[in-house]
């Protein structure tokens, strides 16, 4: 099976993602999540997670989206307690 991850950004205000494997945290300014192709941080203002289904891997975020930052390509799930200590 091929890893799949897509991001569609409409007017910098609505982001639709596929291939999401886990969401670590989110607030009005940042959404920190994992995709099948690695870590992803979404930064902006007044961010709101509208739809989330980890079963299908789909997530929709709305608000003023300023940046999408990809991190470690090999990290697709949350770190355990010990892993966070050495991060």
Structure in words:
Helices cover about 5% and strands about 60% of the residues. It has one helix at about 80-85; strands at about 5-10, 15-20, 20-25, 30-35, 40-55, 60-70. With about 90 residues, it is mostly beta strands. It is globular, with a radius of gyration of 13 Å. The mean pLDDT is about 85. The chain has a 6-stranded antiparallel β-sheet with strand order 1-2-6-5-4-3, with no helix packed on it. It is built from 1 helix and 6 strands.
- Round the mean pLDDT to the nearest integer and report it: 87
How large a portion of the residues is in β-strands, by DSSP E?
over 45%
* Helix vs. strand class: mainly beta
Can you count the beta strands?
6
The 3D shape can be described as globular
Share of helix, binned: under 10%
Tally of separate helices: 1
Q: Strand order, biggest sheet?
A: 1-2-6-5-4-3
Distance N terminus to C terminus? 29 Å
Radius of gyration: 13 Å
* Sheet with the most strands, sense and barrel status: 6 strands, antiparallel
Q: Which parts are unreliable, with pLDDT below 50 for 5 consecutive residues or more? A: none
SSE run: EEEEEEH
